Each structure stands twice: as structure tokens, then as C-alpha cells.
Amino acid sequence: MVTGASQGEGRSGRGEQPLDADQTLHLRVDALRADETMQLRVPAPPEPSPGGGRAERRRSARPSARERAGSVTARILGPLAPLTSRLAPYLRPLAPYARRLKPAYPRPGRTGWRRWMPSWRQWLGGTLASFGLLSAFLVTAYALTGIPSDLNSYATQQDNVYFWSDGTPMARTGWVQRQAMPLKDIPPDVRWAVLAAENETFYSDPGISVKGISRALFRTVGEGDTQGGSTITQQYVKNVYLNQNQTVSRKFTEAMISLKLDNKMSKDKILEGYLNTSWFGRGTYGIQRASQAYYGKDVSKLNVSEAAMLAGLLKGAGLYDPTLSKANHQRAVARWSWILDRMVKIHKLTPAQRAQYKTFPEPLKTNPLYNTGEQSDYLVELASQYAKKAAHLTDQQFDLGGYQIYTTFDRKREKALTDAVTKARKQAKRDDPDTAKDGHYGAASVSTDGRILAVYGGPDHRTQGYNESNATTVPAGTAFLPFVYAAGLEHGVHKTRGGPATPVTPDTVYDGDDAVPVTTPEGPYWDRSGKKVAAHNDGNKSYGRITLREALAKSVNTPFMQLGMDTGLGEVRQTAQASGLLSASIGPQVPALSLGSSTPSAIRMASGYATFAADGTHTEPYSVRRITRNGAAVALATPRPARAVGAQVAGDVEQALTDSFRAAHPDVTTPDVAGKAGTADQGTTDEGAAGQNTAAWYAGTAGSVSTAVVVYRMDLAKSLEPLPLKGLAGATPDTVPYALWSAAMGLD
């Protein structure tokens, strides 16, 4: 029986107000125990929409943000429900403890500001949680940090050093002055001077200094300043993997890589890398270049006092280079003394040894390392090109540096040649400035075994980039005659087309008159314009019947133009190439080829004449005899001699050149000297027609050395066409070239 209903009705009937919406309705249930009631919540009816519009109905139909969040949570946690139900029996006993761990905050039972102060338990819990999170972060960061595979190319780039043939430094190239040295070649005193100055616990620390990092971070973040405190491992990482930016992220990355590097690389390797990549001032990187820049010696020859001075530079060369200012000198002396005292403290010097160093080791005033300039640039250019080719090095490999290039260049011969040409240039400017301004001088000395001993490439590589000694710009003229002579002696001549060759000797007679028509087995040789080709002698002089040996000695043209036709221009070309001239410089196969229409460089002309002095064997000219990289030998392909002409032929050519030299210069008594002058005319390439001299040569040998010199005029701003010499080569065409040649050969 539901009594509550009747009571309610009675109350209502007694004039009581009806129940409002959402008020509680009490029902008496007889089945329940006396005085127990059941409460039912009657929800309030929804209020009508003020607008009652369609938009409002759509908005009311959308789920609320809380409902959407609940839906998403249900979708995510739904699959975990079975697992949660399984773990519930085990987690339920922990619930009271979890509730106790939950901080009551603000703290109950406290008043005022004390309500907001955490308890010691809360402080401890927060500290432990922070430490745990930080540890997890550091472990994760360490695991995710890798050692970069690519080194900082600038930090590891080195310079290339070039040496004269006597082993003394000649020049260096590269953006930085650095030469890596193996740790075994760096004395222990030098190493410990650096360690005492920078990181005495290097061999025992984990690669980082927590104290130093904290101090650096405080300075960087708190005060906007930078502060040291890095270990040598960290400094090495910064040098070769990162950059010099003073930021928190860079310092953190540096620390992580340092820890990992310390676990993967030996301490000695890290120290070696650090000593070879650190900045020491004066444009130098690495202890080897610093030793040379400040004391003019290799690092292996430093004493401990000098090493301490260099170690002081690591704190900042701009502040501790004693040659820059008086204040710098005072700081350098103080730091030098402190480093030596530190070495005593860490037991790397005894007090007695320390007492020996009371005087500061003053460094050199300026960096003595050799720089390129003027002539040395031409030498470096030749050597670097050859080094890359012979050692099979790419430009990228070579530009990374670290190579020691031992050249074939003779310092004394180079100076003699350069001085002689410089003197000739000055004299020409005094005599005729207008003519001299277009003057060019190329010269080279080559040994019979192929070594290039000296070259003159131009007045200054920085203003004239191309190398005169290696330029193929002007015809060889009559300096080419020995190659025609050698071809005739080697291969004989053909009087009939397809017939057998007739041997030729130095005593074979040819017509030496001027304007002798050039003939073939079929008759006269006609040029493209339909004219007969005739040879001309210098000055249109006629010599009558003359032997080939005498014709070469007197530089008579007409016999050799005909000899070239009789031997075959193909054989002449082949002999010239085998002797050392480049194929690209050989002229067209027309009669003018025998009179020097080819345009060999001074280096190649000297190399060709050296073949005759070497009994007919030719060795390609080369400028580098040995290459090392940081002390380790680099494989180098060195040219081998090859037979160009027979020994008897070479001897006959050399004898004729000796006769030529003796006839022109009877006052020179030096033995074993051979050579001849050569001139090229404007019309030389026009089938032998005579014209004005545009180039003057002198080429010859003295003992085992061959030298070739060429003088010509050319206005490079207008064209590559040679201009008339107008007396630039001297009163006679070979005066200046011979003077330069004799100076280079030491005959003065």
C-alpha cells in the first residue's frame, strides 16, 4: 500500500500548495521498514527557447564540449577496460596510500601564509620527482645524441706546404695555417704544458666538467656573459663538430657529445685532435704551425718554457700574444709563469727544473711562415697541378690540405733566372717604354731526368695570372730545326713515293741557297693559292751546297724545309712529340712545319733539347718528387724515361748544337755546352715567307741541364697575335734571350 500518495492528496485537499518541479516527493512504502522513505528526483522540465528558432534547436542538439571529451576518452580508454578490471584487485589496497600521498594544498590546519608553504614531505617529494625527471631526460638525451659523422671542415682544414729541392720551405697555400701532427711527434713536456693550463684532470675526468658547465650556464643565462670551464674534450668537440656560438643549446649538445666521445675515443686521440685544431693566433691552427709562427721551429724542438708560452695563448691569443702590446706582454709573462708552476704542482716538472726557466721566452716579432707571391705563385701553380694529377687527388681532397709537397725547383737557379729577367725588363723599360710594355719573357730549366729546376712565369702572378714558361703562344721558329734534323737522321729520306728510305748522315749535302723551291717526289709543292712554295733564309742569304750538320750550326733554313719534306712531315711530327713537345702545340703538316710553325712552351722546348743531351731518352718534365700528408708518404706516379731517338742520332744532334754554340760564342770555355738561337717571323706560318721577327729564342744544354728562353711582344688586351719585336730582344735577335739563358745556366 502506498500511503504517501493518499497523504499527499489529503494535504493538497487541505489547501497546501502543489509540489514544485525538481522538489523531492516522499513516498511511504509499506514493504520497507517503518520510517524509511524512498527519494525520487523529479527533473525540471526544459525551459522553452527564447527565440525558438531553427538555429537554436541545432545548437541545442549538438553535444557539449564535456560530452565530446567524454566520448573521446571512452574511445581511447575503452580497449583498456579489461586490463583495468584485472588490475583492480591489486590496485585497491594501494588506494589509501595514494590518498595519503595526495598533497592537501593549501595545507589544512594552517593559517595565513603558512597555508601556502609546502611541508617537508612535499619539498622532498618534489625534489625527488624533479631529480628523477631530470635523470630520465639526461639518459634519453645521451641515448639520442650521436657523434656527428661530418667534421667541421674549416676546423680540420690544413694548409699545403711546398719545399724547394733542398728541403727548405718555399711557400704555403690554404685558408688556414694548420698542419696536423701525430701525438707521438709532440713532446710530453708540450702536452703537459697544455694540460696544466687547460685541463690537468684530462686523463681522469669523464669528458665534461659539471662545475665548469654550471658556472658557464650561470654566466650565460644569468648575466648574459660567457665563461670558460670546458674540458679539453669539450673544446675539441666545439672545434670539430659544432660552432663557437655561446648558447645554452650549443653547450648542452657539446656536453652530450663529449660524454659519448669520451667513451668511444681514447684520451690520447682526443688530445691529439685538440692540439691540432686549436687556435693559437697569428693565423695559425694547431701546435705545429704555432711553433713555427712564434719560434720558427717544429714542435718537436720546443722546450718546456716555449711550450708554456704557447699554451698560454689558448686562453685567447688576442690577449696573450706578447708582441701585440705591452699589456699583452705582461699578461703573457704572468700566465707563462703560472703554467710552469702548475706543472710543478701536478708533478710534471721538478722544482729544480722549474728554477731553470726564469726568463720569458720571447717569440719572434712576426710570423716567418712563407707566403706565396710573385714568382713563387707560378711555381706553386705548376707543382699543385702536377701533384693532383700524379697522386690522383681530387680538388676537394687537395684543398682540405695537410700535404707537404717537395718540389724539384732549385732555389739558386730560380733566383738567378728571376734576377736576370727582372734586370732585362728594367733595361727594356728604360730603352723603349712603349715597346717594353707589351714585352713577355718565358724561361725554364729542365734536367735530363725530367726535373723542372726553374721557371720564369711572369712579373707577378697576382697581376698576370698565366704562366709564360708554360704558355704555347708563339712559334718556335728556327729553334725547331734540331727536331727536323733528328727525324731525318732517325728515319732517312724518301726520294720516290713508296720507295725505300735512304739513310741520312750529318754529312749529307743539301742546297742552302735562298728561295729554293720545295719539292716532293712528284715535283714542286704548290700552296693553296696555286703558288710554288720556296724556303727562305734569314736575311735572304744563300749558302750554296751545305752539309746538314753545318746547316744546323749556322741555322740555314732551306735545307731543313726540304729535309722535312723528304723525311715525311708525319715523321717530323712524331719525333718532336717523342722528344717532349706536346701534340697540341705541333703545327699543321705543311712545309712551314719544319721551320718552326709549332708553338711549344719554354718548359717543353727545354725538355725536348734535354732529350738530345740524355742520349735520346726522354723523361716527361715534372715538378714534384715526393708528397707526404702529415708525415705519411702519398703514392706518386713518377715519369719514366722512354726512347725518343737513337743514341747515335741524339749524339749527332748534340754535336751540331755544340758547333752552333761555339761558332756564336767562341769566348765561352765551359765544356759540354750546346745550344742555338731561334727566331720566328710573321710570315713563318705562311708557308715560309720571310717577315719581321716576332719571337726570339735561345735553347741549349750545359751538362745535364737544358734551358729554353723566349722573348716576344703581345698586347693581351687586344689579341693573341704576336707583334714585331722592334729591338726588344736586343741588337741581334738572340742577344737578350742568350743573356738570360747564360745567366740561368751559370755561364756569366
Low-confidence stretches: 1-17, 19-25, 29-34, 220-228, 684-690
Count of distinct strands: 21
Q: Roughly how much helix do the residues carry, as a percent range? A: 40-55%
Strand order of the largest sheet: 4-3-8-16-17
Distance separating the two termini: 149 Å
- Beta percentage is 5-15%
Principal-axes shape call: elongated
Helix-strand category = alpha+beta
Give the gist of this structure.
The chain is an alpha+beta fold and 748 residues long. The strands form seven sheets. The chain has a five-stranded mixed β-sheet with strand order 4-3-8-16-17, with helices on one face.
How would you characterize the overall build of this protein?
- There is one protein chain.
- With 748 residues, this protein is an alpha+beta fold.
- The strands form seven sheets. The protein has a five-stranded mixed beta sheet with strand order 4-3-8-16-17, with helices on one face. Strands 10-9-21-20-19 form a five-stranded antiparallel beta sheet. A three-stranded mixed beta sheet has the order 5-7-6, with helices on one face.
- α20 runs antiparallel to α28 (735-744) and α22 runs antiparallel to α27 (647-664).
Label this structure with key terms.
748 residues, alpha+beta, five-stranded mixed beta sheet, five-stranded antiparallel beta sheet, 28 helices, 42% helix, elongated, disordered N terminus
Write the layout of secondary structure elements.
Blueprint lengths: L2 H11 L11 E4 L8 E4 L13 H8 L3 H13 L3 H11 L3 H7 L18 H25 L8 H4 L3 E4 L5 E5 L3 E2 L9 H11 L11 H13 L9 H9 L7 H17 L2 H11 L1 E3 L2 E2 L1 H9 L8 H9 L4 H4 L5 H20 L5 H5 L19 H16 L4 H5 L3 E5 L3 H21 L1 H4 L2 E9 L4 E5 L24 H11 L17 E3 L7 E2 L2 E2 L20 E3 H6 L3 H11 L1 H11 L22 H12 L3 E2 L5 E6 L2 E2 L8 E2 L3 H18 L8 E9 L11 E10 L2 E9 L21 H10 L4
Parallel strand pairs: 3-8, 5-7
Antiparallel strand pairs: 1-2, 3-4, 6-7, 8-16, 9-10, 9-21, 11-14, 12-13, 15-18, 16-17, 19-20, 20-21
Helix pairs in contact: 8-14, 8-16, 10-11, 10-12, 14-16, 20-28, 22-24, 22-25, 22-27, 24-25
